[in-house]
Specification:
The protein is an alpha/beta fold. It is about 25% helix and about 15% strand. It has five helices and ten strands. The strands form three sheets. A six-stranded mixed β-sheet has the order 2-7-6-9-5-10. A two-stranded antiparallel sheet has the order 1-4. Strands 3-8 form a two-stranded antiparallel ribbon. The model has no long low-confidence stretch (mean pLDDT about 95).
Length: about 180
């Protein structure tokens, strides 16, 4: 866990700020990073536009495009509206204590996530793990959505591959955080 006031935000390639956010509760500890898929039908700009539209009522902290470009949509200190109705052990509203990362993908289980996306997600995850997030703090939207079965994303994301690459990255610089 990382106290939000001590959180060092990851460097991104560009920013496109969303108006959809709230304040985090005082003393918030970041406990999770929730990975999503945009279900964008191949239109990344449209997905980003939706995440930045006041009409959508949704947002995320980061959007990771198919080419690995990382777009910041909200500063980490703000509460994004990404998890919706959600629960995690000891948490009744996941948005309060998490970062939301949207991966550009159709979320149909057929479109693979790209090599560039895996590299970007591992780089980003390592940045936050080095600050104190546990390896099991990186979760799928479907794991936190309530009621269970309400969401499927990120469908087709290779979690064992991601976790192995993250572990390797952290071991390389001698910074392997504890589990849970």
């Amino acid at each position: 866990m990382i106290p939000v006031n001590l959180l060092r935000q990851a460097v991104t390639d560009r920013a496109r700020l969303s108006p959809n956010y709230g304040a985090r509760p005082p003393g918030t500890l970041i406990r999770l990073v929730v990975l999503h898929a945009t279900a964008d039908r191949g239109h990344e700009e449209a997905a980003e536009g939706w995440l930045c539209s006041p009409d959508s009522g949704v947002s995320a902290h980061l959007h990771i495009r198919r080419d690995g470009t990382v777009v910041r949509l909200l500063p980490d200190v703000l509460r994004a509206w990404h998890a919706g109705a959600s629960r995690w052990p000891g948490v009744e509203d996941v948005n309060d204590v998490s970062l939301g990362w949207e991966l550009a993908n159709r979320n149909d289980g057929r479109e693979p996530f790209t090599e560039a996306q895996y590299r970007a997600v591992v780089r980003l995850a390592a940045h936050y793990a080095r600050q104190g997030l546990a390896l099991d703090a990186f979760v799928a939207h479907r794991q936190v959505a309530w009621p269970r079965g309400r969401k499927t994303d990120p469908r087709g994301f290779d979690w064992p591959r991601f976790r192995a690459a993250l572990r390797e990255e952290l071991e390389r610089d001698g910074c392997l955080p504890r589990a849970g």
